[in-house]
Structures are given as C-alpha cells and as structure tokens.
Amino acid sequence: MRKSMKGLISAGAGAGALASALLGGQAAAQEGNSPISSVPAETGEIIVTAQRRAERSLDVPITVTTLSEDTLTDAGVRQLSDMSKVVPALRFDKSGVYTQPTIRGVGTAIATSGGGPNVATYVDGFFLPSAAATDFQLLKVRNIQVLKGPQGTLFGRNTTGGAILVSTAEPSEDPSGELRISYGRFDTVEVQSYATSRLTEGMAFDIEGLYRRSDNFQRNIVDGNDQVGKYNRWSIRTGLKADVTPDVSLLLRYTHSETDDPSALMHNAFVDGNGTRWIYQFTPPGFYATKPNEVALNPGDGVGARTNTDVIQGTIKADLGFADLTSYTQFRDERVTSIQDLDATALPIFTIGIGSNSKTFTQEVLLSSKAGSPLQWTTGVYYFRNRDTWPTAAKLGTAPFVRNGASGTLSQSIAVFGDATYEVTPQLFLTAGARYSRDWVDQAYFQRALTASVYEDANGNPVPFDPATPLYTRFDVPKLTNNRVTPRVVLRYKPSEQSSLYASFTQGYKAGLLNVGGYSYRPVKPEKINAYELGYKYGDGRFTAELSGFYYDYSNLQVSSFQAGTARITNAASSEIYGIEGQASARITSDLTVSGGLAWTHARYKSFPNAPFYQFCDPGAVFGASPVACTPTSLGGLGPGALVETVTDASGFKMQRTPELTGNLAVSYGIDVGGGRLNLSSNLYYTSSFYFGIAEQFRQSQYALLGLRAEWVDPSETISVALFSENVTNHRYRSAVNYASLGIGSVWAEPITYGVTLGVKY
User: Fold this and answer.
1) Which letter does DSSP use for residue 634 in this model?
2) Phi, psi of 705 (to 5 degrees)
3) Would you call the peptide bond into 625 cis, given omega within 30 degrees of 0 as the criterion?
4) Phi and psi angles of residue 378, each rounded to the nearest 5 degrees, phi first
C-alpha cells in the first residue's frame, strides 16, 4: 500500500454489492478542476459526478463503484474490459470485435448498423457510441465510476443497464511527466508516456502516447504458426487548455488510435459438457481445434480485425455566478474492418468480411446549481447524430472474396432533461427528474446480392426471391421515430453524516431499431426498464460499507442472433431481474487495507416464446417444409451434420451472460524497504456459471482469477519497479463465444501471464 491509502473506493449501493471495494480511503488526487482534487485525503471521502454534479458518494442515491488510478494499476486493469475483475455484476463480452458490457444482466449482443449499447461509456463527459471502440487502452486515467441501474434521466437512451464514466488527466501549467515500460509473457511489450506543461500564463498542453504489442498465445494447427493471434495497438492523445477569463475555460482534445488485433476472432470449436463439437460434424481431424491454445484457420483467409479512429473534442466550462455551465462538443470518425471464419474450422466453407464505418457528432449543454443551497439541480439539452455503413463481403469455399451486401442508417436523437434534489429537512431529501427524448432513424437501407435468398417485409413475413430483381439491389427502409419520457424519483434519509438510506424508482429506455443487418423492413421495438432500488451506505474514513437490493421489470428486450452473414434482431417479450449487492472496505492499519464485494443477480426471461436456438439439422426432415431440415449440398448447403438456427420457448430461462454470483476480494499491504515503499497487492475475482447463448446454450462453468502485484517506489517517488502476474492459477475459461448457424466458436482467455514494469516520473 502507498503512503496515502489509495485504492478501490466504492461509492454506491443499489442493486447490490457486498463487496467490490474501496481499496482505501481517498481516490487518487485529481488534476485540473476535477472535483476530487478538493477532497482532503484525511477525510477518507470521495466525490463523484453520478448526478452530473460534484457530490460525496455517501450522499448519492445510486450504486456507484469508483476506481482510482492506483486501484486500476494494482488490479492489472490495462483496458476497460479488465474492470470486470474488480466490479461485481459487471461483464465485458464481445460479439466478434464489438465489445458489449452488461450490468446486472442488462446488456446487448447486437452488432449491426444503428445498434447501440445498453451500458453507455463516457470519457470526460463524452459518449462513446461505437462498440468497436469501447474496450480501449486506458490513457492517463484518474478514476472510473461505474453507475449500476438505468440512468435514463441524466445519461439518456443508451443506459438501461448503467453507465461507465472515465475521467482522465487535464493539461496542467505545472510541468510533469512519466514513462512506463512493461515486458511480459508472450513477448508482450507496452510503452506509455505522458507529459504536460505550460505554454503561457493561463494556457497548458499535454500529450500522451501508448503502444502495446504481443505475440499472443494461440497456435494455428494448420500451418504451425504460433503468432497467428499477434496484435499491436497504438494511440496518441493531445490536449490544449486555456483559461479564457477567470470564469471561463476551454479544453480542446484530439485523439488518434489504431489497432491490428485478431484476438476476438481467434476461436476454435466449442465443445459442450457432453463432448459434442458444435461445428460441421464431419469435419476431419486437422481441420478443427479444441484445446485452449490452438486454433484451426485457413492461412489464406486473412482472419483479423483493424480499427482506425480520430476524435476531436471541445469542452467549455463557465462560472455564471448562479450556476456552472458546461458544453461538450464531439466529432468521431471510426473505421473498422474484420474478417471472420464463421464455421470455426479450417474447411473452406464460409468466411465473411464486415466493415463498420461511422461518423458521429454530439453536442451537450449542461447547467448545474452551486453547492450550499437546499435545492440542488442539474438541467441540460443533448443532440446525437450517427451515420454508419456496414459493407460485407463473403468467401465461399476456395473462391475469392466477393461483395455480397451492405447496410446503413442515420440515427439521431435530441433530448432535454432536468433533475433536482431538495433538502426537506437536514436529514430528509427528495430527488425528482425526467428526460424527454425524441429518437429517429432514417436514410436506412440494406443491399445484398440476391440469388435464392429472401428478406422480410414490415410484418416479418419472408418475401421470396424474384428472378427479375437485379443483383445488389438497394432496399430503402421507412423512417422510424420514437418519443419517450424517462422519470426518476428518490427519497433519501440521512441518520448521520456517516450514513445514508435511500429508496428509488428510475426508468430506462433504449430506442427502437431498424433491422437492416437482418435484411428486414420490420422495426424492432424500444426496450423499457422500470427499476426499484433500496440502499444503505456507511463511511467513517476507515471503514465503509454498502448494501442494496433491486428489482427490474424489463420489457421488449432486443436480442440478436447471427446466421451466415445476417444479424437478425428480435424482441424478447419480457424479463425479470432482481438481486442484492454489498461492498465493504476496512483500513485495518496504516499499512493494510482489505476490501471486497459480492453481487447476487437473479435474471430470467418471463416470456420469450420464439428465442433463437441452435441445433444440428435432421437428415430425416423434408427440406423446404421443416426448419430443421438439412440444406442439400446441391443447393450450397452442407447436408447432414450441419447446424441450423430454429426457435424455442425460452420463458423461464436464465438470461444470457448473467452469472448469479460474482465477487472480488482485494488486499493491499505496504512496508518501508530500502528507503522506499514496497506495496504488495492482490485481487481475487469469482464468477458462477452462465450462458453465452440466448436460450441457455453454450455454458461457461464457474471460475476464479487471482492477480498479484509487487511494486517498489524509491524515496523520491521518481522511480518504480513492479512485478505482476494475472490468472496466477492458470485457469482456462472462455472469454467469448462466437455463434452462427455455420459453427460455434470458443474464444479462450489468456493463460497465466507475468511481467515487469519500470516507471519514471518527474
């Protein structure tokens, strides 16, 4: 542990966490005008912005887990998806290269034009709309806040599950910098540097670069290539901050990042508990792999993924005297290309190339009251515009790639919102708020090479192939508009300055979609979630504890299944989610901190009569008359031994990607060694079993992960040396399952990794 107990500080209660935990008193001191910078370290308190204004986490009636910079480092959190190791009830799953976080069972498996997350990610107040850019390398992060439960009033339509708020360092006039170099197993190298300084009085800049590469752990059994999963990622970020007047500041940022990373597509054949391989059953040995470190890929297919992102952001902050004004303006240009082997074998069956190109503009203006009055309020307006196109190409057998379709949408949203808390008495507080959103999708289309295929009309009925229809015909889909009001009401009672009780009702909303990726005119209904929560919080500077319970009534879930080149989206009728969470942290001595968190989540579909379901085809069924019939090889099918997608009644089934029990236990101990400080830290994460598939298919059994870290910092706190290891017990588990009607593929997480980090600060 370091001299000033920094660590994992949890700030919320709500739907539950008997653990996830504040590794220490105060989150790392913030730079610039971050609210946390004003909190004395000796108070053991932390300030959060979960209600879009700076408040003590103890006073915020939302489940919020706040992770400091040191906590993230100690737990081995190098990119956003690693946070699931320290935040119970949070998962980061993937559909191909697209990252899809889930909180308390609320998430999405949709990856298509116009799709969006159920858990919104914000960096310095800016929304990240692209699922391909969500799992980013962390750049000079000061803290991360994970808000659990729908945040539809203050954060909008993409927050039915919750929100993740990332706060980074701002340029400072005080010159400083740091360099970190890491080397680890599988020839993994990471270099990160940061520098900030003054240009003139009232103006400062910063610049940061990050590079990471690795040979990865997979070997291709087809050609013996043990670097088939090799990846590299790099990014550069710069900022300019100017104090225009004593009351107005401007921060401009530019970020460029590139990745060449096939990791999420390195799958092999999924093998279930009965030993069944979920691929074409007659695949000969040598053309499929099942061991965690092996894949079977045709080297000529070029399986992999590349991303290229440019981001320009502008933040204006103004003190108006009676309130604080903040303006967030953002433009994003993101380009993604991926090539995926859908059959999970090296047989020349079907390989697909998918592109995703999006241009996003967002504008938000936020007005917040000054602290000190009985009435605290926040109001604002928000505009979102995203145009994306998804071109596709396919490779059948040994033929070359050919264009086989495309889809695109223009999604827009405008919203106005307000939220206020009134101090009825010094112990009783009432919060109420609402958001009005108008969302619309237009200029939507799908385009495909029509041969013997079909598409869906507005009612979901198949439209047969018309021989007179030209190839690559474009089908324009009618405009879709949704309007919704999402309210929030909270009653909070404060027995003392160290404790708080609250009861809340909040509503979340996810806008409807046009299912252009499924070649359909049928619109997908909006999701709606009603959330009820009871919570208790306590904190006295040395000990913190939180406990909460929640109940969700969740309707019209948007679920996705993937066939050969087609992403089909349907609505699950309804589901029910409830649970309890708790978290606690204790500073045992000035050198020892122990913290932990636990979440129990019960998530079931209440009614889902037509859930997508994968099975092997029936050779005895009549082709054209039965959905389980085998497609003859004369018509381009695989015949007997192939997979088909049908439907089943999943009512009462467990929701996908939702383990019932998750938790973590963290220990941090610091001692003086060699005139410097040695910090020993560990984090143990546990998850019970769950299903990657929609209808209780593709099960992952329970597992636990242990991470260890030892870091020595010299007396001047200039030089540091750290040894680290992740997945110390070398447990093998699946990090994702890529499923389609051609094959089910297991993506395996890394085995044990270890390495060393050298750091220099000035």
Assistant:
1) G
2) -125, 135
3) no
4) -140, 135
The two three-digit tokens of residue 160, written as one number? 């039915």
How would you write 522-543 as a 3-class SS string?
Answer: CEECCEEEEEEEEEEEEECCCE
Q: What is the pLDDT of residue 469?
A: 67
Q: Cα–Cα distance between 438 and 485 in angstroms, integer?
A: 9
Which 8-state DSSP code applies to residue 296?
-
User: What confidence tens digit (pLDDT) does each residue in 377-421 have?
Assistant: 999 999 999 999 999 888 888 888 888 888 999 999 999 999 999
Instruction: Summarize pLDDT for 429-486 with one digit per residue, the tens.
Output: 999 999 999 999 999 998 876 554 567 778 777 777 666 666 677 889 999 999 999 9
Q: Name residue 712's beta-bridge partners.
A: 678, 721
In the block, which residue shows the tokens 């808000």?
A: 147
Q: Please, what is the Cα angle at 70 between 184 and 307, to 5 degrees?
A: 55
Query: Taking a C-beta distance cutoff of 8 angstroms, is the pair 438, 414 a contact?
Result: yes
Global confidence as pTM: 0.90
- Greatest distance between any 2 Cα atoms in the chain: 83
Please name each of the domains of the chain with its CATH number: 8-610+649-761 (2.40.170.20)
**Sheet containing 8-10: order of strands:** 8-10, 63-68, 141-148, 162-168, 119-123, 126-128
The rounded distance, in Å, linking the Cα atoms of 575 and 509 is: 15
Round to whole Å and give the CA distance between 520 and 460. 7
What is the SS3 assignment for 69?
helix
Instruction: Tell me the three state secondary structure of residue 300.
Output: helix
Q: Please, what's the b/e burial string for 612-638 (b: 16 or more CB within 10 A of its CB; e: otherwise)?
A: bbbebbeeeeeeeeeeebbbeeeeeeb
Q: For the chain, how many helices (H) and strands (E)?
A: 1, 46
CA separation (Å) from 358 to 308, 310, 475, 512? 11, 11, 20, 19
Residues 68/27, Cβ–Cβ less than 8 Å:
yes
Amino acid at 694: I
Please, what's the b/e burial string for 719-749 (b: 16 or more CB within 10 A of its CB; e: otherwise)?
Answer: ebebebbbbeeeeebbbbbbbbbbbbbbbbb
Q: What is the phi/psi pair of residue 243, to 5°?
A: -85, 95
